[in-house]
Amino acid sequence: MPPRVPISDALRSVLGTPTRAALLDSSPRSRVWEARLRGGERVIVKQITGRGGSGADGDARYAREVAALRLAARATRPAIAPTLLGTDPASRVMVLEHLEDVGAADDWMPGYAESLARLHALTGPADAGTLPAWSGPRAADAESFTALARALDVPVAPAVPNELAGLIDRLGPTRHHALLHGDPCPGNDLHTPDGVRFVDFEQASLGNGLVELAYVRIGFPTCWCAMSVTAAPLAEAEDVYRATWRNLTGTDVPGDLADACAGWLIRGDALVERAHRESADHLARVPAEDFRWGRVSARERLVHRLGVVAGLTRDHDRLHALGRLSAALAARLLERWPALRPLPAHDTRP
Question: 327 vs 113, 141, 160, 310, 320, CA distance in Å?
Answer without folding.
Answer: 28, 19, 13, 5, 11
